[in-house]
Amino acid sequence: MSWEMFTRGATLALALAAGIAATPAYSQTTLRIGLAEDPDVLDPTLARTFVGRIVFAGLCDKLFDLDEKLAIVPQLATGYEWGGDNKSLIIKIRPGVTFHDGEKLDAAAVKFNLERHKTMAGSNRRTELTPVTSIDVVDPLTVKLNLSAPFSPLLAVLTDRSGMMVSPKASQEAGDKFGAKPICSGPFKFVERVAQDRIVLEKHAGYWDAKNIHFDRIVYLPIVDATVRLANLKSGQLDFIERLAPSDVPGLRSDNRIKVSKIVEIGYQGITINVGKSDMAKGNPLGKDAKVREAFELSLDRDGIVAVAMDGQADPGNQWVAPTNAWYAKNAPLPKRDVNKAKALLREAGVTNPSFTLMTPTTSDAQRIAQVVQVMAKEAGFDVKIQSTEFATSLNLADKGQYEAYLLAWSGRADPDGNVQQFFTCNAPNNYAGFCTKEMDALIEESRTKLDAKERLAAYEKIAAIASKEKPVVYLFHRHWLWAYNTKVSGLRTVPDGMVRVQGLKFN
């Protein structure tokens, strides 16, 4: 996502507004949603982007969903039970559900989808379902997932793309081209996609929960510039936009045509540090010594970062979940800024004026965060150089360990395992820090095998103790998901995962 200066943005606003006006004329029951990016492939097995999950919310139902309090609720499933010493999960399937092509959704279709997630070439769901060793069809509406060990995050995993069901027939016929014309079982079916321009969905007449669907069509329009996105909402070209810029919130308070809703995310914004991903960790004072990392953290005022860089639209935090989250480990509390202590730690480490490069996405909010961090850290003696990098390129460099520190946001998962396991375990796909210890791996594995919440929290307290000491990630804050929409729109559910659920949405 790139943001431009106002003059350039204004020109782009006119161009995009004209482009939207030129798209096919839809009925008055069309909902037009402005997206912050263009999604990647529309195949839940292969997809990676946050914004793609927003489109999937209208296109592909899941076995389970989340409510506003992050409780897991049935969607395509009607219920479940753990069996065999918690080494199996038995799921009951909702009767009478059909895919968009008319095919039946039953236990065999669920088995097909879960196996597709596990085995398809390029699958990004494979590691999410690693503990699932096999799937049995018990009867037409019952499926049994057999596990190598108890796996407490499994239900939460099935509230996201791993729980999305596609038509087995369509998927087999299309092969790896399925994402070009996806066929799922959600409230809306795919009509067309024009890259960087629009994704059009049409109401699925046979949807099992049709009474809660109030639009004939949804058109998703990717507009990367937040100023342009808001301009199109104000002009009536859009009905709804996701990820309103925090700086735009004050200006909308007096606009009676637009409503703003928000909620604290389940993810985080943090600075990942290369502590072992590559040889660049060895020549990096931040990567070599935990004392230097602690000094860096103590140089930062999280409240100040939130106030200046995020216009107050975030909650300061020092873990993978916010301090208000039930999974927050209270044994590792939020530290306050202490520049004198930071300087003392640098002296103890024998490091004077440590210098490192902070790789930062090119978005304007990321740039502001990096600049505030740079100024604050300088007061403790750090020389922070900012390397602005296009987002996809930055991820590629992080994968290769070609960086020293990396300003990275994670959209988060309902179960804390989704914010921890893939970042802290050895050889995990998102372990950009290269942090790897047997103790951490064992604790994370322990946390995954406990179904009792108190036992899991005890494991997370031990994980937090290690993470706060070693600091492979310096967590900064937890953003507020900000949605802006025409006041004629009602029924929005503010769920902390940031998805725009279309069930219940309508025009007044």
Describe the structure.
The protein is α+β, with helices and mostly antiparallel strands and 508 residues long. It has 3 domains: 6-59 and 186-239 and 488-507, 3-Layer(aba) Sandwich (D-Maltodextrin-Binding Protein, domain 2); 64-168, Dipeptide-binding Protein, domain 1; 268-480, Roll (Dipeptide-binding Protein, domain 3), CATH 3.10.105.10. It contains 16 helices and 20 strands. Strands 1, 8, 9, 10, 11, 12, 13, 14, 15, 16, 17 and 18 form a 12-stranded mixed beta sheet that branches. Strands 4-5-7-6 form a 4-stranded antiparallel beta sheet, with helices on one face. Strand 6 (132-139) and strand 7 form a beta hairpin. Helix 9 (290-298) runs antiparallel to helix 11 (339-349), helix 14 runs antiparallel to helix 15 and helix 15 packs antiparallel against helix 16 (453-470). It is globular and about 70 Å long.
Keywords:
alpha+beta; disordered N terminus; Dipeptide-binding Protein, domain 1; globular; 508 residues; 16 helices
Q: Shape from CA axes?
A: globular
First-last Cα distance: 32 Å
Q: Over all CA atoms, what is the radius of gyration? A: 23 Å
Q: Quick one: biggest sheet?
A: 12 strands, mixed
Q: Let me know the CATH homologous superfamily of the largest domain.
A: Dipeptide-binding Protein, Domain 3
Low-confidence stretches: 1-23
Strand content: 15-25%
CATH architecture label name of the largest domain: Roll
Number of helices: 16
Q: What is the number of strand segments? A: 20
Q: Share of helix among residues?
A: 25-40%
Mean pLDDT across residues: 93
Q: How many domain regions?
A: 3
CATH first level of the largest domain: Alpha Beta
Classification by helices and strands: alpha+beta
